[in-house]
Amino acid sequence: MLKTEKEKMLAGEPYRTDAALGDEQRQRRILMDAYNAIPAIKREERRAAMTELFGKTGHGTTVRSPVYVDYGSNIRLGKGVFLNFGCVLLDVGVIEIGDETQIGPNVQILTADHPRDPRERETGIEWGKPVKIGRNVWIGGGAIILPGITVGDDAIIGAGAVVTRDVPEGATVAGNPARVLPPKAKSPA
Question: Where is the Maltose/galactoside acetyltransferase domain (predicted)?
Fold first, then answer.
């Protein structure tokens, strides 16, 4: 049986973007726009809209507006997750964010990937690679997490970092491309 372009997209296989997007993505963007338009003071309305927009939202999760998504339905947020203003989550692949993770303003989490060959890119083919962020991670403002990345529990990603490789549990990374920083020596008591 032939797969639809969306089924290929969700399986991480090459798909044609113009054929996969369609009505569903337009409907999901309407939900995103509606969520972004709800004033912060209307907490119950925001919570209901957030639950409708995202695939999963844990108890106590906060997503400040504006937030930008491709679908939203492929994003799973654990309990107590915090996303600050202006985050971009391109979820053609699944994005999982663990409990108690804090994400600074203007962070980009990207799952869409594209061919490196220019002729192949002209065909409109792309694919998604899932991103998994562990629990209790802190991601500084303006960081970019590229497709296919896994970030371990308790990691720290410095502001403005471009994460091109998996981040080990408990590691601190910074820079472009992000590199693991040596642990700081503890000061004598």
Answer: 6-59
